[in-house]
Amino acid sequence: GAGVSQTPSNKVTEKGKYVELRCDPISGHTALYWYRQSLGQGPEFLIYFQGTGAADDSGLPNDRFFAVRPEGSVSTLKIQRTERGDSAVYLCASSLVGTPSTDTQYFGPGTRLTVL
Amino acid sequence: QKEVEQNSGPLSVPEGAIASLNCTYSDRGSQSFFWYRQYSGKSPELIMFIYSNGDKEDGRFTAQLNKASQYVSLLIRDSQPSDSATYLCAVKKGNQFYFGTGTSLTVIP
Predict the structure, then answer these.
(1) A43 near B44, Cβ under 8 Å?
(2) pLDDT tens digits for B30-41?
(3) N- or C-end of chain B: fewer Cβ atoms within 10 A?
(4) In chain B, positions 16-55, which contact chain A (CB-CB < 8 Å)?
């Protein structure tokens, strides 16, 4: 079966531009997470969806970041007025929800965002 | 105080030896604990999860959890060069997963 997919794999943009990053989770997984990983760091939580709603968006760094999951499957992370500090790998993960075994997250390959 | 602390390493062990990776966490309310392996340029992949005190074994890997000491460890027996990677400890608290910065492991042939 297909794993988590993310597009694009790489995105280079200029400071101040708008970008959208897409995540397609594993079929049937109701939970979806976005993370940001900078070089030498662990993934940093951004937002968690349970179904269509953002159950926890406390990790979004500021109001330039926004994410949606309108039909409870594909999610889009949107970044407005990009800054050089936004450069990182953006990871998406999905899981079932419930016991620790079903809380297991499966990560996508990530989108490497570079803001020039 | 960080939610999850790991020694960044690097940790080097000879092939066939036991590699021991350690992690501490700050919040006693943390519910479950995960070890991920991440190869350079790749995304994290799950090795094991543990949520009860004690040991849990899966092949060459053993996870150990001590909630009283807020300590999680991963032992890799018979280390292989293919085990060379960064190992991430993650803790679930509420809806969120908190990751450590990872420990870089090199297994020397």
Answers:
(1) yes
(2) 889 999 999 999
(3) N
(4) 31-32, 34, 42-46, 49, 51
